[in-house]
């Protein structure tokens, strides 16, 4: 009389529990993949921003440097004779 009730059938709950667990793990793995991909993209963007910018030539003509009023000196330290 004490053990006459059969064991309840909980197979459906076990399968549902495993499905929920695997779905949550799948979402977590997908999240890790997307974070990794975005991190790689961000690193590439930062490396590109770190490169020096290319200077564009301006349309204004360049000025010639003014000639110096001092006399040039030879490599031996004496002034040239005019």
Summary, kept brief:
With 82 residues, this protein is mainly α.
Characterize the structure shown.
49% of the residues lie in helices and 0% in strands. With 82 residues, it is mostly helical. The longest helix is centred in the middle third of the chain and has 40 residues, at 11-50. 0% of the residues are buried.
Write a concise keyword list for the protein shown above.
82 residues; 1 helix; rod-shaped; mainly alpha
Query: What is the N-to-C succession of helices and strands?
Result: H
Count up the helices: 1
Indicate the mean pLDDT. Answer: 82
Query: What is the end-to-end distance?
Result: 133 Å
Q: Could you give a short account of the major beta sheet? A: none
User: What overall form do the CA principal axes indicate?
Assistant: rod-shaped
Q: Taking Cα atoms only, what radius of gyration do you get, to the nearest Å?
A: 40 Å
Structural class of the helices, strands and pairings?
mainly alpha
Helical residue percent band:
40-55%
The percent range for strand residues is: under 5%
Q: Could you give the count of β-strands?
A: 0
Uncertain stretches: none
């Amino acid at each position: 009389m004490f053990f006459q009730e059969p064991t309840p059938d909980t197979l459906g709950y076990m399968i549902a529990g495993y499905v929920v667990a695997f779905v949550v793990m799948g979402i977590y793995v997908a999240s890790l993949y997307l974070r990794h991909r975005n991190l790689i993209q961000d690193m590439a963007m930062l490396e590109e921003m770190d490169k020096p910018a290319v200077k564009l030539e301006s349309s204004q003509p360049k000025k010639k440097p003014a000639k110096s009023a001092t006399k040039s000196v030879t490599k031996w330290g004496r002034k040239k004779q005019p």
